[in-house]
Design goal:
heterodimer, A: 221 residues, mainly alpha, 80% helix, elongated, B: 241 residues, alpha/beta, Rossmann fold, six-stranded mixed β-sheet, four-stranded antiparallel β-sheet, 10 strands, 38% helix, globular
Chain lengths: 221, 241
């Protein structure tokens, strides 16, 4: 069997699995972004308890392997909640990405000139209003490149869900290779699927970045 | 309008303000002068509690302000501030910069806020710049927008923290002209500046700060013509001739 035949043979399975990967990535990153934003606020808060929660969260999640976190949620929580591999995957990936996204948001928020908050407060705006209307829109724009990077990592990380019985792209490669014994060709083709997804994602991010920056970005004003 | 008693502030072991007393009457223009590091900016920033004083009293319109109990946001609405580095909101147009606080803090109708904003932009000579973003403006234009933004809250007092120090020399005049007009209209103003000519022309009262204390205060004529203190004389001979 040459590589073209293998490509054709795996096409239906891989395409279906790629769609699974996209869904897994989308939902986990959406949830991860929400977690990241909340943890970032905890981290910059003056409240010691909230700050502590954020520090512990980020330290533990960044300090342990993703596969451990996936297993912990899928098998470890099974006596409390039964999650199927898709749901367990989304949550594990979200919790994982959330720690990194929190640091991205925290960095972006703190990179905004202190004068912006002072100007807003001097006009009588409350801290929360100034944060929402003045600081966050600028911080969000500034975090897009790093966020994009993290999203690409998240997409590839989703492959680990294969090991708790997921039906996404990498699981599908493992299955196909076990059937056709053409390990190299199968994994090579599977890698191309990931590459294609990442490229589509990259273009999307570039478009968003360009779109948001039109005329609105300046270093100091 | 504003009265400060025994105001003290330190950062760690550095005493920036060592017991300041001052009084600003309605419609008065008070100019604070002094070398950098003398505490004049810190004093100004204490007046609207952007810096928290360590001790002492600040009274606004006869009422003592306690940052623990009083609503600072309410007070800040009535005290406009202009910064050395403008701090316009770069992600909003000039118009949006001006209507932000009136609409979201004062809950003014957008239409009314826009009308007011346009009037203020005309006043500072930038009526044609309402829909551009701040980054396309010159320094002098940015500062005039910043003044208009502060005025959009209809404040009773305006604080100016070295408003022309970050500007190219040829742009200083346009900002000072706007400030002079405000002073003539009777706005109560407290200004930190190094523009001695302007201070002399516009001020009702000039205060000279050195090492966190007001060394001397009086009319511009008195301070600039016949300063009583040696340190004032020294400072003026360096910056003003």
């Amino acid at each position: 069997m040459d590589i073209i035949e293998i490509f054709q043979a795996t096409l239906p399975g891989f395409t279906r699995a790629a769609w699974q990967t996209v869904q897994l990535t989308f939902w986990s990153l959406l949830l991860g972004t929400v977690i990241g934003l909340i943890i970032a606020f905890f981290k910059i808060s003056r409240n010691v308890v909230l700050k502590g929660i954020a520090t512990v969260y980020i330290t533990v999640i960044r300090g342990t392997p993703l596969i451990v976190q996936i297993f912990a949620i899928y098998f470890g929580l099974s006596h409390m909640v039964v999650l199927d591999s898709f749901m367990a995957g989304i949550h594990a990936l979200a919790i994982h990405a959330g720690a990194y996204i929190a640091e991205i948001f925290r960095g972006a928020i703190q990179s905004i000139d202190k004068g912006q908050m002072e100007a807003a407060r001097s006009l009588g705006m409350k801290y929360s209003l100034a944060m929402r209307r003045i600081i966050l829109p600028q911080a969000f724009r500034r975090s897009i490149p790093s966020l994009g990077n993290q999203f690409i990592i998240g997409l590839k990380d989703s492959s680990l869900v294969a090991y708790i019985g997921g039906t996404e792209l990498w699981a599908s490669a493992l299955g196909a290779a076990a059937d056709n014994f053409a390990q190299f060709e199968t994994y090579f083709i599977n890698g191309l699927y990931y590459l294609a997804l990442v490229l589509i994602f990259t273009f999307l991010l570039q478009w968003i970045e360009k779109h948001l920056n039109v005329e609105k970005r300046s270093v100091s004003a | 309008m504003i009265e400060v008693k025994k105001l003290k502030k330190s950062y760690g072991s550095v005493h920036v303000l060592k017991g300041i007393d001052l009084k600003v009457e309605k419609s008065e223009v008070v100019v604070l002068i002094g070398a950098s590091g003398s505490g004049k900016s810190t004093l100004l920033r204490c007046l609207n509690f952007l810096e928290m004083p360590d001790s002492g009293e600040i009274c606004f319109e006869g009422k003592k302000v306690n940052p623990q109990y009083n609503d600072l946001n309410q007070m800040r609405q009535e005290i406009g501030m202009v910064f050395q580095h403008f701090h316009l909101f770069p992600h909003r147009t000039v118009m949006e910069n001006l209507i932000e606080a009136p609409v979201y803090v004062k809950k003014m109708k957008k239409e009314k806020a826009r009308q007011l904003a346009l009037e203020l932009l005309e006043k500072v000579g930038l009526g044609d710049k309402a829909h551009v973003y701040p980054h396309s403006l010159s320094g002098g234009q940015k500062q005039r927008v910043a003044i208009a933004r502060a005025l959009a809250m209809r404040p009773k007092v305006m604080l100016f923290d070295e408003p022309t120090s970050a500007l190219d020399p040829e742009l200083v005049g346009e900002v000072l002209a706007v400030m002079k007009e405000l002073a003539q209209e009777g706005m109560t103003m407290v200004i930190v500046t190094h523009e001695m000519g302007f201070a002399r022309e516009v001020a009702d009262q000039v205060m000279f700060l050195d090492e966190g204390a007001i060394i001397e205060s009086g009319s511009p004529e008195q301070i600039f013509e016949s300063p009583r203190e040696e340190r004032t004389r020294q400072f003026l001979s360096q910056v003003y001739s």
